[in-house]
Specification:
Layout (H helix, E strand, L loop, with lengths): L12 H12 L3 H4 L1 H8 L2 H28 L6 H8 L2 H34 L8 E4 L4 E3 H18 L2 H28 L3 H4 L11 E4 L2 E4 L3 H17 L16 H30 L11 H4 L9 H10 L4 H32 L17 H17 L2 H29 L14 H20 L1 H31 L7
Antiparallel strand pairs: 1-2, 3-4
Helix pairs in contact: 1-8, 1-11, 1-14, 3-4, 3-10, 4-10, 4-11, 4-16, 4-17, 5-6, 5-16, 6-7, 6-14, 6-15, 6-16, 6-18, 7-14, 7-15, 8-11, 8-14, 10-16, 10-17, 11-13, 13-14, 14-15, 16-17, 16-18
Length: about 500
């Protein structure tokens, strides 16, 4: 495999934590609470869902730390699955990662960036059609999201140092802004707003439907929680992206595990407290055609922009645009982290001769430039073909399958390779990893049964990789037989 450059050890603990946190904090925290509120209908259960997400994400991070320290190689999860199971499992992850998980997230965050930019620049709107061919429409929101993806891809082709500078600036800026939002939001709350915690409706669960609120309890409440967690898990997703850049991390055996734990805990705690501000600032239940932000509530915030509605509820309309600026900053930094790290997976696959050969080349600046542009191309296509919510459903269901496989890989590798060096060992093994796996399995079953429109196709995408894998291997084997020297290229 030819390669003009080489990876550069440039990411310290500060940089690595920025990639972890920056990849997590994107658009989800500012939007998905509306859908969660429609599913569970009470402030208490909204916070429970975010609390469960916090615990699940941190539990996963402490388990991933063992794998990252043991196998600090570019490609992250792809490498873990390949070593724990077989090259087929690694390929299935890489296949799904490229088609749905990574590029779908890039597209979804790009669309959210454009949507919030529309608060400041009304021209940027899904209603502003730039091209109408009848069977295909291209609007201003899609146009801006594509421009963002192109620009950030170009930045990251300039080298890892350029990428990390953008990441550090935007990550730590949005973390400080969110902390300020939490402090100011709680401090500015009136006594009447704080009374929500003592309200009789605090734990009164219901689902919002056209006919009104449908009460939930028992099994129906469990189902609603499972369905609602699609949003919170999406908001907390991409925390593992740092593992894809392992060859560029300084002292990766220790730095990666520490960054994962620090980053995931910090972000998830911020997410939980942001939602505390939401339920202080706005009534959770609302009516779809409400005339004001208070009448619409969290459930029916305009275009699901809960954060914008919340700051309006606290300070009035004049400050509404401030939250839109925050979200634009957040999504910009989030997509930079995702774009920076994601192309390293296809690079690793190419070196195993399981992806296009050129994606395994490094530029003179030490980055997989061609892989970055291939990633950008598919992400832009997804911007044109799917809505934010559709992409979200595809991303989370496919990701959950591999979350389970990766956490179980801790068990597999301890059995297969007990002698491998483990600078960090998974906390609470085997109980904590087992709890995480069980929780993910429960959510998967609920989504398969109750959200089949996108989950079954998501499963089909994963399984479609099986014949592709064998066809690809057959093709590569045939090339090796016809030209043995190809095996060394």
């Amino acid at each position: 495999m030819s390669s003009r450059g080489h990876f550069k050890k440039s990411l310290n603990l500060f940089d690595s934590a920025a990639i972890t946190m920056g990849s997590m904090i994107g658009s989800g925290i500012f939007i998905v609470s509306a859908d969660i509120a429609r599913n569970v209908g009470s402030p208490g259960w909204l916070l429970v869902i975010w609390g469960i997400t916090l615990v699940m994400t941190v539990l996963a991070a402490v388990s991933y730390g063992e794998l990252a320290g043991m196998l600090p190689h570019v490609g992250g999860i792809y490498v873990y699955l390949r070593e724990a199971y077989s090259p087929l499992f690694g390929f299935l992850y890489g296949w799904t990662f490229f088609l749905v998980i990574q590029c779908g997230t890039i597209a979804a965050v790009g669309m959210a960036f454009a949507k919030y930019s529309g608060v400041m620049i009304p021209w940027i709107s899904a209603d502003n059609t730039l091209l109408n061919l009848g069977f295909f429409k291209f609007n201003a929101t899609q146009f801006v999201s594509i421009l963002m993806i192109l620009f950030l891809t170009w930045v990251n082709t300039r080298g890892i140092k350029e990428g990390k500078r953008v990441q550090n600036l935007f990550t730590y800026s949005k973390v400080l802004i969110l902390i300020a939002f939490i402090i100011v939001g709680i401090y500015a709350a009136k006594a009447s707003q704080l009374s929500v915690f003592n309200s009789s409706d605090f734990w009164s669960a219901s689902r919002a439907e056209e006919g009104g609120q449908v009460p939930l309890e028992g099994f129906s409440l469990l189902i609603a929680i499972g369905m609602a967690m699609v949003g919170s898990l999406f908001a907390a997703d991409a925390w593992y992206n740092l593992t894809y850049t392992s060859d560029e991390v300084i002292n990766p055996k220790k730095t990666i595990a520490r960054s994962l734990i620090i980053g995931t805990f910090t972000v998830c705690l911020i997410y939980f407290l942001v939602n505390v501000v939401y339920i202080i600032a706005l009534p959770l239940r609302g009516i779809p055609d409400g005339a004001t932000v208070m009448e619409r509530g969290i459930q029916f915030a305009k275009e699901d922009r809960v954060a914008t509605a919340a700051i309006y509820g606290i300070f009035g309309q004049r400050t509404e645009i401030l939250m839109a600026i925050v979200v634009v900053i957040s999504t910009f930094g989030c997509n930079n982290g995702i774009i920076l790290s994601g192309a390293r997976v296809t690079y690793a696959m190419a070196h195993d001769r399981l992806f296009f050969k050129r994606t395994g080349d490094l530029s003179e600046k030490g980055v997989p430039s061609f892989a970055l542009w291939v990633q950008a191309a598919w992400s832009m296509i997804l911007c044109l073909t799917g809505t934010y919510s559709q992409l979200l459903d595809y991303v989370i269901f496919a990701a959950l399958i591999f979350y389970i496989l990766v956490i179980f890989a801790v068990f597999m590798l301890r059995k297969k390779h007990p002698d491998w060096d483990r600078p960090y060992r998974a906390f609470g093994f085997p109980i904590i990893p087992a709890i995480y796996i069980a929780a993910c399995l429960l959510i998967i079953v609920i989504l398969l049964v109750y959200k089949p429109l996108f989950t079954w196709p998501g499963l089909a995408i994963v399984l479609s990789g099986v014949p592709v894998y064998y066809l690809w291997r057959r093709r590569q084997n045939a090339k090796t037989l016809s030209d043995p020297a190809d095996a060394d290229r």
